[in-house]
Design a protein that fits this description.
Elements: H1 2-42, E1 94-100, E2 103-108, E3 111-116, E4 125-129, E5 133-138, E6 141-146, E7 152-153
Parallel strand pairs: 1-7
Antiparallel strand pairs: 1-2, 2-3, 4-5, 5-6
């Protein structure tokens, strides 16, 4: 058994020498090829021009990490917000013919309508029905219509 171990160890050493030897041969060949390429590059003449000033324009305003000064601050031009004129909402042409409790009888564009509070019509919303007035909401605008005493009927 001892003989086999010795033989196996010798074979492993020989295999390691062969592997490392082939590695070193390939590295030596690669170095030889690189030196040939650099020799051909060295024969070429490269002309350069030198300028004494270096002009670099930076796009941003960043602090120089080597200087102990703060970053330059650009002053922004203050712009006034644009004010768009509000659209003018016209008062709907409503003819209130009567009120019974919280129900409103009216005419709009020749049509008779019976509406109650919080009901939507083609001209807007009946926001509130009070004993002496009716409030109509058109978009964000509120319009108040005063009622004549003879238009009001109380339920008993």
């Amino acid at each position: 058994m001892n003989k086999y171990r010795k033989l196996f160890t010798v074979l492993l050493i020989i295999a390691a020498i062969v592997v490392w030897g082939s590695f070193f041969v390939r590295v030596k060949q690669a170095k030889a090829e690189d030196s040939q390429q650099t020799a051909s590059i060295d024969n070429k003449v490269i002309e350069t021009t030198r300028t004494d000033s270096l002009n670099i324009d930076f796009m941003g305003s960043f602090r120089d990490p080597f200087a102990h000064t703060p970053a330059p601050v650009e002053k922004k031009k203050e712009t006034q917000p644009k004010h768009y004129p509000k659209p003018i909402v016209q008062r709907p042409d409503i003819n209130i013919t009567g009120v019974i409790g919280k129900t409103l009888i009216l005419e709009f564009k020749g049509k008779s309508m019976v509406l109650s509070q919080d009901e939507q019509a083609e001209f807007g919303l009946i926001y509130s029905i009070e004993p002496d007035s009716v409030i109509v909401q058109v978009k964000d605008n509120f319009f108040t219509y005063k009622l004549a005493k003879d238009n009001r009927m109380e339920l008993e």
